[in-house]
């Protein structure tokens, strides 16, 4: 029986931390579905537009061999709908979200993975701006 894993993220300025979390998520099942945050969602969530457009970020994530399907995540409040719609058995989130999606444990396993230490998209963007 196949296990579908679902995860979400902005995946802006794609870096090794993004790759590692997607590889670890993929290892928890047979199929990995990734919700890439819409530009508008990123503005609401982080107060800034992504460096790369929604379309570019979707294309980058879809090109990874560990990713089976991508879609645009329009709202944080629709996580349950996304999990059910994609028939996910496992929801994977970074540990910076620990506890925030535990209510979904009635429809899937919820796993919080540790972030890759010392790697942050925001820090990368700030470093580039300082150059």
What does this structure look like?
It is a single chain. By secondary structure, the protein is an alpha/beta fold. 34% of the residues lie in helices and 21% in strands. It has 5 helices and 5 strands, in the order E-H-E-H-H-E-H-E-E-H. A 5-stranded parallel β-sheet has the order 3-2-1-4-5. The radius of gyration is 14 Å and the shape is globular. The termini are far apart.
Short précis:
By secondary structure, the protein is α/β, with parallel strands linked by helices. It has helices at 16-26, 39-46, 54-62, 79-85, 121-130, and strands spanning 4-9, 31-37, 69-73, 90-94, 109-113.
How many helical elements?
A: 5
Strand order in space, largest sheet: 3-2-1-4-5
Structural class, please? alpha/beta
What characterizes the major β-sheet? 5 strands, parallel
**What's the end-to-end separation, in Å?**
51 Å
Helix content: 25-40%
Low-confidence stretches: none
Order of helices and strands: EHEHHEHEEH
Q: Output mean pLDDT.
A: 91
Tell me the number of strands: 5
- What does the overall shape look like? globular
> What is the CA-atom radius of gyration, in angstroms?
14 Å
**Strand residues, percent:** 15-25%
Structural key phrases:
5 helices; five-stranded parallel beta sheet; 5 strands; alpha/beta; 131 residues
Which helices and strands, and how do they pair?
Elements: E1 4-9, H1 16-26, E2 31-37, H2 39-46, H3 54-62, E3 69-73, H4 79-85, E4 90-94, E5 109-113, H5 121-130
Parallel strand pairs: 1-2, 1-4, 2-3, 4-5
């Amino acid at each position: 029986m196949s296990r579908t894993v679902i995860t979400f993220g902005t995946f802006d300025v794609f870096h090794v931390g993004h790759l590692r979390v997607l590889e670890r998520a993929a290892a928890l099942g047979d199929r990995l579905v990734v919700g890439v945050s819409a530009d508008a969602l990123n503005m609401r969530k982080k107060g800034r537009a992504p460096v790369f457009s929604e379309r570019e970020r979707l294309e980058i994530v879809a090109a990874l061999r560990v990713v089976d399907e991508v879609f645009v995540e329009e709202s944080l409040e629709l996580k349950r709908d996304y999990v059910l719609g994609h028939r996910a058995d496992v929801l994977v989130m970074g540990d910076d979200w620990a506890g925030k999606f535990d209510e979904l444990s009635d429809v899937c396993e919820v796993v919080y993975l540790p972030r890759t230490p010392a790697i942050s998209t925001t820090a990368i963007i700030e470093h580039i701006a300082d150059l």
